[in-house]
Specification:
- This protein is mostly beta strands and 120 residues long.
- It contains no helices and eleven strands.
- It has strands spanning 3-7, 10-12, 18-25, 33-39, 46-51, 58-60, 68-73, 78-83, 92-99, 106-107, 114-118.
Amino acid sequence: QLQLVESGGGLVQPGGSLRLSCAASGFNLDYYAIGWFRRAPGKEREGVSCISSKGGSTNYLDSVKGRFTISRDNAKNTVYLQMISLKPEDTAVYYCAALYYCKGPLFGSWGQGTQVTVSS
């Protein structure tokens, strides 16, 4: 069964850090771009970051540039999102998704997501 599982979320104070993981099972991540998305309460889901299949290209939402870093370890079939200097407005459920290419169509389905809460 094709599946992506997000983990690493939690409660953190403003200015803190978290590293999210996106682990794939049932398929090889090598062939797909991977995007991180988030949905804050009462808002639409938005794209946060994306990394190309070989990792040579990345992009970020303007509001997270310089604070978030996306990376992938194809040997571990896992993609990461390192988040530093977190702000309350980063509070959301974070999802990863396999894409045919960044900003392209979804491959498979959405995972369950992982909650990130930034609060003092």
